[in-house]
Structures are given as structure tokens and as C-alpha cells.
Design a protein that fits this description.
The protein is α+β, with helices and mostly antiparallel strands. It contains 6 helices and 4 strands; from the N terminus they run αααβββαααβ. Strands 1, 2, 3 and 4 form a 4-stranded antiparallel β-sheet that branches. β2 (95-101) and β3 form a beta hairpin. α5 runs antiparallel to α6 (151-181). The longest helix is centred in the N-terminal third of the chain and has 58 residues, at 20-77. The radius of gyration is 51 Å and the shape is rod-shaped. The protein starts with a helix and ends with a strand. The model is unreliable at 1-7 (pLDDT under 50).
Length: 210
């Protein structure tokens, strides 16, 4: 009988072991959590890299734009290079003027050449040549014969002749421009205008005094 009772006792060790399905489910859940953590870490790294790239690109873009602005402002502040046209020479006919020096007749024979750079001046000069020659004859007649024998006297005469001719050219050019503007719309034109071309120099190519 003792032996029969011994066989009827249950095996406690077998009943305490968990089932196989539960172990498999628990392993799957652990893998899912691991994958979730890995995905979250990758997402955070991608966000961090994207934010860093955005900030760096903004900084570099701001520096390049500011450098471009500085370069453009420096280029605009630099004065434009003025292109000088070649000189053009226009010889005038010889001027002969008589002087009365202490009861003696003396004369001056002078040949002048005008220097300019714009062909527009030639048209105005030829149109108003009678006025130019009249001014120069009157100027030469007012000179003192003895003073013209010095270099200083000749230089003063040359400067005075240049002023007389420039005055005629400037006035006649302005009058012609006003007549043209009356036919056009003044509102479409800028207020500031470049200086009109004019005679630049008067040169003595012949200067004989007797």
C-alpha cells in the first residue's frame, strides 16, 4: 500500500514550468521593442543631421549674399572709367591785325587751330563761324603790341581766345537744345545732363609780328 500511495503523488516540477507559447510571445515582444528603439534612434539622428545641415546652409548662404552685396556695392561706388575720344584739330584762316605803335604801323599775323574731341562741335562751329571770327578779330585788335612780344602776353591771348570761342559754342548749343526740348516731353528726360562738348584748346600755329 505504501508503494501505491507513492505512485499517486503529482510531479510538481513539471507543473511549475511555463508553457512554450508564452516564451515565444515574450521573445517577439522584446524584439518589437528593440526595433522600435532602433527606429526612434535613427529618426532622432536624421532630425539632428537635417537641422545641422539647415543651420549651416543658412549661415553659408548669409555670408555669400553679404559678400555679394559688398562686392556689388564696392563696384557701384567705384567711378566709371571715362573714355577719352581722340583729339580733332580744326585750323582757322589767318588773322591779320594792324597796330599803331608810336605813329608807326605794325601788324600781327596769327594762325589759330582749335582742338576738340566731339564731332558735334564742328557742326556748331561751322554754323557760327562769322560770330567766332568777329570775336577773335575784336580780341586781337584790343591787344597791346609790346605785350604780345612776350610769352606771357601770348599765353594770355590764347586763354582769352579760348574763352571767347567756348562762350559762343556753349550759348548756341544751349539754344539749339532748348528748341529741341520744346518738341519733346520734358518729363521723360533726366534733370541732370552731362556737360555739352566744346572747344578744349586754342593753339597758335603761326604768330608773326612786324
Amino acid at each position: 500500500m505504501a508503494a501505491g500511495k507513492k505512485d499517486e503523488k503529482p510531479n510538481k516540477q513539471d507543473n511549475d514550468e511555463p508553457p512554450v507559447d508564452a516564451v515565444v510571445d515574450e521573445a517577439k515582444q522584446k524584439k518589437k521593442k528593440l526595433f522600435m528603439f532602433i527606429g526612434l534612434a535613427v529618426l532622432l539622428v536624421a532630425i539632428s543631421v537635417g537641422a545641422t545641415f539647415f543651420i549651416v546652409s543658412k549661415m553659408l548662404g548669409g555670408k555669400s549674399s553679404s559678400a555679394d552685396e559688398e562686392a556689388s556695392s564696392s563696384e557701384s561706388s567705384e567711378p566709371a572709367e571715362v573714355v577719352v575720344k581722340p583729339a580733332i584739330y580744326f585750323p582757322l584762316k589767318v588773322f591779320t591785325v594792324n597796330f599803331d605803335v608810336n605813329g608807326r604801323q605794325r601788324f600781327l599775323q596769327a594762325e589759330l587751330t582749335l582742338m576738340y574731341r566731339d564731332e558735334v562741335v564742328l557742326k556748331t562751329l561751322e554754323l557760327h563761324m562769322p560770330a567766332v571770327r568777329n570775336r577773335l578779330v575784336m580780341l586781337l585788335s584790343r591787344q597791346v603790341f609790346d605785350e604780345l612780344q612776350t610769352s606771357e602776353g601770348k599765353e594770355r591771348l590764347r586763354a582769352a581766345a579760348l574763352t571767347e570761342i567756348q562762350d559762343i559754342i556753349a550759348k548756341e548749343t544751349a539754344a539749339s537744345a532748348e528748341k529741341t526740348e520744346d518738341k519733346e516731353d520734358k518729363e521723360d528726360k533726366p534733370k541732370e545732363k552731362p556737360p555739352e562738348p566744346n572747344i578744349e584748346q586754342v593753339l597758335f600755329t603761326q604768330f608773326v609780328m612786324q
